[in-house]
Amino acid sequence: MELLLKQTIQHLGRVGDVVKVKNGYGRNYLLPLGLAVTVSKANVAEIERARALALAEEEARVSTLKEMAQRLSETSITIESRANAEGHLFGSVSTAQIAAVLRDKGHAIEERQIRLAAPLKEIGVVDVVVHLHASVEATVKVWVVQQKPQ
Q1: Which strands form 76-81's sheet, in the order they lie side by side?
Q2: What is the pTM of this model?
Q3: Fewest CB within 10 angstroms: 31, 38, 61, 150, which?
């Protein structure tokens, strides 16, 4: 069954794409939920208008995210943690801690947007990638320092 997508559906297609799906998936899911319509000239014209609008919104969103990435790239954060004499942390610094410090500094960042190969387990300076969009990433300098004795 060939259908015209009214919305972007992950792993299937974007707005305005003509996709070939199994009959049951189309009849029982895509059509009843209004995610797709049958292919016709009127529907194609309507979806093309919607696609143009969606592309314009996406471009505006990407430009906003690029500005945010620029501000993030200029940011460095400091996280204090307990460590031994060699600089190994008692525990680790995770994406949740980094996201919390960035939120405290006024950046709307979620934990899942931060890319770490592994939790930080030593004192030092690390460049951490923040994934904002498929085409927009920023690098934040994270300073992990010894916690001051109380």
Answers
A1: 76-81, 136-146, 124-133, 114-115
A2: 0.72
A3: 150
- Residue with structure tokens 């400091």? 78
How far apart, in whole angstroms, are the C-alpha atoms of residue 129 and residue 108? 15
Alpha helices by DSSP H, the chain: 23-25, 41-73, 95-104
Query: In whole angstroms, what is the distance from residue 21 CA to residue 31 CA?
Result: 11
For the chain, what is the domain count? 2
Per-residue model confidence (pLDDT) at position 95 = 95
Question: What whole-number distance in Å separates Cα of residue 132 and Cα of residue 110?
Answer: 10
Nearest to residue 98, comparing CAs of 73, 83, 78?
78
* Domain match, 142 and 87 both: yes
Cβ 111 vs Cβ 48: under 8 Å = no
- Specify whether 58 is located in the same domain as 11: yes
Residues 88-124 pLDDT 10s: 999 999 999 999 999 999 999 999 999 999 999 999 9
Residue where the block lists tokens 């194609």: 44
Domain that holds residue 103: 75-146
Contact 77, 143 (CB under 8 A): yes
